[in-house]
């Protein structure tokens, strides 16, 4: 049985995604996902900066943002995964967001997302990242 995504994780994931975008890091999408392998929810950030700057500098920028967050904060660094927009998982999430442009998040589970079976997912609406 996998872990359930907590309300605090959802709230702080949104806070982090906004703060990362406000810091100038490209954030095209942000979503929690627990796959069949780990079943632990991970916060995925879709960013062009993974290709433009490289993963290490992008993670370093996220660490700097994380250090500024008020404690307690329910997102740990080891729960964050960066994805280039060209990855199949990222493309599926971006396509779902384009079909659902409203202010409501997309939730689901027990289905395939980007070719991967997922136990649960929570995709933040595009409006969360709009400045």
Short recap of the structure:
This protein is an alpha+beta fold and 131 residues long. It is built from five helices and six strands; from the N terminus they run H-E-E-H-H-E-H-E-E-E-H. A hairpin with a 6-residue loop joins strand 1 (29-35) and strand 2 (42-46).
What do you see in this structure?
By secondary structure, this protein is of the alpha+beta class. It has one domain. It has five helices and six strands. It has helices at residues 7-22, 49-52, 55-68, 88-99, 126-129; strands at residues 29-35, 42-46, 80-83, 106-108, 111-113, 116-123. Strands 1, 2, 3, 4, 5 and 6 form a six-stranded mixed beta sheet that branches. The longest helix is centred in the N-terminal third of the chain and has 16 residues, at 7-22. The model has no long low-confidence stretch (mean pLDDT 91).
Feature tags:
6-stranded mixed beta sheet; 5 helices; alpha+beta; 6 strands; 131 residues
Chart the SSEs and their pairings.
Layout: H1 7-22, E1 29-35, E2 42-46, H2 49-52, H3 55-68, E3 80-83, H4 88-99, E4 106-108, E5 111-113, E6 116-123, H5 126-129
Parallel strand pairs: 2-3
Antiparallel strand pairs: 1-2, 1-6, 4-6, 5-6
């Amino acid at each position: 049985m996998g872990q359930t995504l907590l309300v605090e994780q959802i709230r702080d994931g949104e806070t982090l995604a906004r703060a990362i975008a406000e810091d100038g890091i490209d954030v095209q999408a942000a979503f929690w996902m627990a796959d069949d392998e780990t079943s632990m929810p991970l916060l995925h950030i879709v960013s062009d900066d993974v290709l433009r700057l490289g993963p290490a500098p992008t993670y370093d920028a996220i660490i700097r943002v994380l250090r500024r967050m008020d404690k307690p904060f329910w997102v740990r660094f080891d729960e964050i995964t960066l994805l280039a927009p060209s990855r199949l998982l990222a493309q599926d999430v971006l396509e779902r967001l384009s079909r659902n442009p409203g202010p409501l998040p997309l939730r689901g589970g027990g289905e395939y997302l980007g070719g991967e079976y997922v136990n649960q997912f929570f995709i933040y609406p595009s409006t969360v990242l709009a400045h």
